[in-house]
Amino acid sequence: MLHLRVISPADKTAALMRLLEDDPGATHITLARGVAVKPHGDLVQADVAREGANQLLARIRAMGIPETGGITIGPIDAVMSDAADRAVEDAPGDPSDAVVWEKLLSDTHEESSLNATFVAFLTIACLLAAIGVSTNSPVTVVGAMVVGPEFGPLAALSVGLMLRNWALVRRSVTALAVAFPIAMVVTLGATMAWEHFGWITTEGVIDAHNVDFIYQVGPFSLVVALLAGAAGMLSLVTAKSAALIGVFISVTTVPAAGYAVVAVTLGQWHRAFESVGQLAVNLLGIVVAGVAVLLLRPRVGEEEGLVGRFKRLIGMRTVLPR
């Protein structure tokens, strides 16, 4: 379930309360009149079943509350209530299929921001990847995968394409198009310094067969990118954040960028081009898979979605914990 918190202008509170009371997926409804200071108004709170949140939020938006008040939604870690169980059962659709689009938009918008922190993490990840390539260390390469923050803008790009939110698309593309070159230029400077000190040699990189997978593009490169992108998007829309770690370790976006830089400094142009190809394949695969997952999820006004309708057709029933 989700916790809904609304600052409502006094003249709209009665209509909002009727809306919540009539909604089968809303429960634990409370009202505190006149307690909101900025903006001024009444405080209305409720717990809402995920599968019914989209339509409820759309109706609240239609009342004009965001313009004069405010709406806040957040996850509930645990709830012990028969009323909450009934709300989940009465709400249309399946909780496992539910995507709260407003929350997803908010989360991905934040993750797609081009800022110093994002650039710093991506730069550190590329530096780790370059070290892993130069020392033939898969463990260091895996560390670079985990540190890399690039999945945030990629997920936001998928959401933007799905919802035709071109502002989010531009924001995500800008973050990737600016941060990757900056990270690679910094890594280029560091790599040239390491070569000057003799820490990196052409022979050492050529003989580093434990990390050949980074630049060797094959059919499984796209397959892995598609699977990782699908798993990553599912982890976002179902709040299974632990699965993202597996996604980070699966894809070779940052390692490919780091390998390309090292290969260029050593004059290994064929490996550099192959690494760039690996990077492009992984980026494209993640975005395509993310869009595909979102296409299967229910949208506002469509509680079941394609997966839910398939379950109904084959007679499957979701058993909810009591």
Report the mean per-residue pLDDT as an integer: 84
Percent strand: 5-15%
Biggest sheet features: 4 strands, antiparallel
Structural class: alpha+beta
- Whole-number tally of structural domains: 2
Order of strands side by side in the largest beta sheet? Answer: 2-3-1-4
- How far do the termini sit from each other? 14 Å
Elements, N to C (H/E) = EHEEHHEHHHHHHHHHHHH
Count of extended strands: 4
Radius of gyration (Å): 24 Å
Protein name: DUF389 domain-containing protein
InterPro entries: DUF389
Pfam family, one: DUF389
Keywords: Membrane, Transmembrane, Transmembrane helix
Summarize the model shown.
It is built from 15 helices and 4 strands. With 322 residues, the chain is an alpha+beta fold. It is elongated and about 75 Å long.
Keywords:
alpha+beta, 322 residues, Alpha-Beta Plaits, 2 domains, 11% strand, 4-stranded antiparallel beta sheet, elongated, single chain
General description of the model:
- This is DUF389 domain-containing protein.
- The chain has 2 domains: 2-95, 2-Layer Sandwich (Alpha-Beta Plaits), CATH 3.30.70; 103-295.
- It is 63% helix and 11% strand.
- It has 15 helices and 4 strands.
- By secondary structure, the protein is an alpha+beta fold.
- It starts with a strand and ends in a 9-residue tail after the last helix.
- The protein has helices spanning 10-22, 50-62, 65-68, 82-90, 101-111, 116-134, 138-147, 151-163, 166-196, 202-206, 219-237, 243-250, 253-265, 269-295, 305-313; strands at residues 2-8, 26-37, 40-48, 70-75.
